[in-house]
Amino acid sequence: MGSVSLKVGDGTARFKRASFCSSAVNVLMLFSVITTNLFALYAFTYSTKKDSQTTHLILHHTQKNISLISEQVSLILREIESSQKKLAQMEKELLGYESIDLSKPNVANELKVFLQHHLLPLGKDSRTGITEMVASVGHSCEKSTDLLSQYMNYKVNGPCPNDWILAQKLILKGCEPLPRRRCFAETIPKVGLQPFPFSLWKNVSEKIYSWSGLSCKNLACLNSKKLNRDCAGCFDIINGYETQKYVKGRGKNDFLVDDVLAMGSGGIRIGFDIGGGSGTFAARMAERNVTVVTATLNIDAPFNEFIAARGLFPVFLSLDHRFPFYDNVVDLVHAANGLDVGGRPEKLEFLMFDIDRILRAGGLLWLDNFYSSNEDKRRALTRIIEQFGYKKLKWVVGEKINGAGKSEVYLSAVLQKPARVR
Asked: A Pfam family in this protein (predicted)?
């Protein structure tokens, strides 16, 4: 077997050299490990610090962007809310009645009740999309709140006050349409009415008319006055000029009914008379199987009741009101000095556009003795008419001597509406 030498000489020397080398290596390895760990720790610490700073910067910018976006969204929402409020206010102003201050102490309670919104009984209407009914009242009623409140001050389910003059005053002030009322209108017995067509030229008892608020209290008084340019003795349908009007002319400006109807090539069936006096034009047309609706007010005379007593159809409205007819349904529009709107061309233009709206293509516009006080007025009317492109079937400018012996210029014309293609 082998043996281990325990001699001090060689063995001891070899052991010392081995221990020294091993210790050096161990120290070097330990230093390397420590150095490596230190570098790793430094690197890790530096990287963590750098990542932390980067993360902090990213979070800071993100928060800043989110804050900026939030501010922008809030601004947009505020703008939308402001726009909705403005649109709602504009809608209220357009409706008109929302601008009426109902908090005033003198506002009638019935007016407040009428102007309330009323929900539809079955909810939203599938065809129109509306959910509530809005009361119809003229926008200009706001300017006459006191008169409107007086008009709406009555006993519910009782008799209406005899205030038709107040109603007409409101209409002439632009308060049209008037609000509805929950009272019963005064009933006047209509005795002695004649059957149609005898009613066209027969007088009836004067007791069937309402004379309250009028200076005249009978037909004789009315016939002694010139109520307007189109009504001088126009209530005398027995012996006066009304019996010859439209069938026998007194001058070149007086067109005859049969001549005008012939221009319509037999297509005149329904018509609209603006400011038709006592209804004589409608009566002449009724004799020729043409139905005419007459628009009139009761200025100084019971025009509406008198026209109705003749078996004709009156409509109580002013020329400021949009005509209550659908587009392109009327064959003939007859107008005399009702077109005179105080010398305001823009108002006349609006009126002419509404006439054009209801008149069908090929229909006739008959201007009957329109008073031209001066050349400028006639030129303005001519310019407005020409912009519609109507065909002039007949155009006559003539003079008449008035009651004071002075010469006056009148325009009479028959115009045909063209068929316009979009």
From this structure: Methyltransf_29
